[in-house]
Amino acid sequence: MKLTVFGVVILALSSVGASDSVADPDRPVHTYSIVARDPETGQLGVAVQSHWFSVGAVVTWAEAGVGAVATQSFAEPAYGPRGLALMESGLAAGEALAALLTADPGEAVRQVAFVDADGNAAAHTGSKCIEFASHHVGEGYSVQANMMLTDRVVPAMTAAYEAAGGDFAGRLLAALYAAQEAGGDIRGRQSAAILIVQAETSGNPYADRVLEIRVEDHPRPLAELERLLKVHRAYDHMNRGDVAIEHGEMVEAERHYAEAERLAPGNPEMLYWHAVTLATNGKVDEAIPLFRKVFAQDRNWIELTRRLHKPGLIPDTPEGRAMVEEIIRRAG
Q1: By residue range, what is the domain housing residue 53?
Q2: Do 260 and 189 share a structural domain?
Q3: 158 in a domain, yes or no?
């Protein structure tokens, strides 16, 4: 079945086959989520927690330069890709959502939220969603929840997101924590996810994805999501340190490496590549204590160091091989 809405031809959601849908439409998949556009960076994001296995695979959708979607309650995953396609075609969030709802015979049990690249947000809570169910559309964001223990969840999410400081991911997470603290899902909790994409597309979907973290099954999914976000930030600082080295900005590189090691203490990966970077930039003496800590955790890192010549991470020259042997002798 086809339907023309706002001059755009779309397929009715009733035509979605089983192979297109991740969720079982006979069960309510989701509890609470937020979609938003960061006013500072223009990044687009969606975050969710639920008592449902692998909720991120069903609820969270986003595309750089286009928008973000949360599809929940008796979830129809097709709202994700089709909503993004409509927004990419030029429809604002509200127009795209209205087009899909008009074509959906199950709209009364859907809860869906869109935000587009301009910060327009729209949401729908069907009349047959399980109480407590509601949403709030604010400036550049929407929060929505169904099957809540109390009616305080959506107001709590709204207040938390608007008051939160820090980076975009942290503010999305703050909204989820507020929902949980206000009573959350009447069934409890099981999984959570955050997805953030860039403000504009580079043409490379992998590079456009700023952050994607999913906690598929955990007794404390938000705490685990927060832990993984911290690890993500540590690796981001490590990567920024590498870029700074490439530009000859050693002080800036050291700042990023130090922050990575602070965020992920004891992680040998951070120490090791910091050490390799120092050694290959003429600072072997400074690298030795870091290598020593890594080698003490697992001596396989020594063997890895011997293998860095082949990809050129350490020059395959007499000088490069001598440096590796010095590192192993002094730190191993």
Answers
A1: 2-8+21-219
A2: no
A3: yes
Task: Please tell me whether residues 58 and 207 are part of one structural domain.
Answer: yes
Rounded-to-integer distance, Cα 128 and Cα 106, Å:
10
DSSP 321: H
In a domain, 228, yes or no: no
* Band of pLDDT at residue 26, cut at 50, 70 and 90: low
Regarding whether 237 and 129 lie in a shared domain, the answer is no
Calpha distance 281→9 (Å, rounded) = 58
Strand, helix or coil for residue 133: coil
**Is there a domain that residue 73 lies in?**
yes
Same domain, 104 and 160: yes
- 33 and 156 inside one domain: yes
Strands (E), the chain: 2-5, 8-11, 32-37, 44-50, 60-63, 67-73, 110-116, 121-125, 134-138, 141-145, 191-197, 209-215
3/116: higher pLDDT: 116
Q: Is residue 285 part of a domain?
A: yes
Closest CA to 114 of 178, 33, 211, 207: 33
Which of 195, 219, 243 is the endpoint of a domain?
Answer: 219
Those residues whose C-beta lies under 8 Å from the C-beta of residue 308, and which sit 6 or more positions away, are 276, 314, 324
Into how many domains does the chain fold?
A: 2
CA distance 79 to 114: 9
d(CA 223, CA 215): 10
Residue 130 DSSP one-character state: P
How does pLDDT run across 205-251, given as a tens digit for each residue? 889 999 999 999 999 999 999 999 999 999 999 999 989 988 889 88
pTM: 0.88
Query: What distance in Å separates the CA atoms of residue 170 and residue 107, rounded to the nearest whole number?
Result: 32
DSSP notation for 276-311: HHHHTTT-HHHHHHHHHHHHHH-THHHHHHHTSTTT
